Amino acid sequence: MAAVKSRQIAGLKSSKQTSMLDEFISPVKRINVPNHILDTKIFNKLSQNSVTKVQPDVVHFAGYKLNKTQKTSIKICNASPQRQNLHIIPPATKYFSIHYTKPDRLVPGFTIEVVISFTPDEWRYYYDCIRIHCKGEENLIVPLHAFPVMDTSRFPRKLVFPQSGIRIGESSRKILPLYSHSPVEFEFQITVLQSHPSIVVSPLSGIVPGEGETDIAVTFTPMEYVTAHMTMQLVISQFNTKPFLCDVTASCSPSAALKLTKSVKDLDEMYRQTKLLDPRCLS
Hints:
single chain; alpha+beta; Immunoglobulin-like; 2 domains; five-stranded mixed β-sheet; 17 strands
């Protein structure tokens, strides 16, 4: 028992001494290992240099869901007549990662497929890049972009009003909805490139609220028999967006009035052919 107690006392003394020494020892700091290639080389060439070609040269993840992984790929091809040795430097942030199988020898014409994975954790714009160190001074860079998008699937490229049923002075309306399925709001602006006095678009600008929708109304009000054409352009505040064009066609012809006149004449004819009941014939 005495020996056991002595060992316990010795252990307590040693632990106290160790804790006292820890107070005088500074914590270990992790230092990032320097990357000689990144520190000494410049990566600013897009798409292709004298020995290597990348397709596509820019990657876009347009629209995403939180904590859901999306994947796409690029192909790196040896476009030179000689065997090449490449260094593929992965993205720096945790949101992008790459996976590929590098051959022992990248012979002329051989292609490496690089799979890119993207996993977001909040609604915002993301950016990173893949760097490719090649022979020579022209090193390649592949930008990676990810961003929320607005749903424009119901904004048509061509809008046609029915040719019948619209009379002079009456109005016909079409509704074009714009959606935002994410908590991000988007601004939009409509420019009428080719106008017509019979066709009116409203509103011409506004905001699509997050997780909501905004309706664009196109109204056709003919004041004469006419076939009207109008072209409008939709621009939204979204990264890498392109203008959306919509051609509107509407017509008002005498056929609608002729149909109405014909229907009235048919009723008059039916009235004339119907024998009226004479009360004097009743007995």
